[in-house]
Amino acid sequence: xxxxxxxxxxxxxxxxxxxxxITPAFPVLDDASRAAVLADVTRFVSSQVQALPEFxxxxxxxxxxxxxxxxxxxxxxxxxALDGExxxxxxxxxxxxxxxxxxxxxxLIRGCALLAYYDHPALIDALEAxxxxxxxxxxxxxxxx
Length: 145
Prior knowledge:
This protein is mainly α. Helices cover 70% and strands 0% of the residues.
């Protein structure tokens, strides 16, 4: 994975693991394609964090660091060292937290990640291929093509 120059390696790795938790397994991609898509999505999310105004970017990067290290209090290890089930539970905890700042932290990553994920050419190709096998593709006017 090419590292975004504006996030440290640990912060980018944290973003990559959050992206992996957030992105759905549908449509099914082979492992190499999924890894490439997730790398592209991570770069996009990282670029959006960098595009934040400085007064938001600095605390957001600090929040990334806090997000990475807070699991030590519950599981005795940082986010990057958690298994997939615990990572997903931790992301869900932040997503559903009563404190708006925690929800908003994940909301930025989720929104950017899903936008980039479903706009990725590999995903579009996979969705079109699956739609071609499963159902008649309809035009914008609704007629069968």
